[in-house]
Amino acid sequence: VQLQASGGGLVQAGGSLRLSCVVSGRTFSSYGMGWFRQAPGKERMFVAAISRSGGNTDYTDSVKGRFTISRDNAKNTVYLQMDNLKPEDTAVYYCAATTRVVAVFSRSYEYWGQGTQVTVSS
User: What pLDDT score was predicted for residue 28?
Assistant: First the structure.
């Protein structure tokens, strides 16, 4: 299973970005998907997760109401729409796949993408 994340970049505070993660290798719909982020000098943290069918989602409190996770099983892709970005959202963002229906802990994810840098300027 391979995950390829893209869509990061530099944006001003209040702006938006959409991250994408394409999954190849096995049936995409058999994986719960998640996004995590890691800021410099900090641990990798959970951001959002979506169930295999897309019917259930979960978010860390700091992004609720600003970020939206979604998936298109026909395109083997999971998205993270990020609106009203803040400087504290600056991090490398990773997508991950789990054989569980859905998960919020990084240890539950078996497969990881390479990460995409998001930088939010004030």
Answer: 94
> pLDDT-derived band of residue 102, with 50, 70 and 90 as boundaries?
confident
**62-93 as b/e: b if 16+ CB within 10 A:** ebeeebbbebebeebbbbbebeebeeebbbbb
Q: Are 35 and 48 in contact (CB under 8 A)?
A: yes
Least Cα distance to 110 among 96, 95, 94 occurs for: 96
Determine the pLDDT at residue 25: 80
Find the angle CA(45)-CA(49)-CA(51) to the nearest 5 degrees: 155
In percent, the amount of the chain with pLDDT more than 70 equals 100
Residues 6+ apart with CB under 8 A from 103: 32, 34, 49, 109
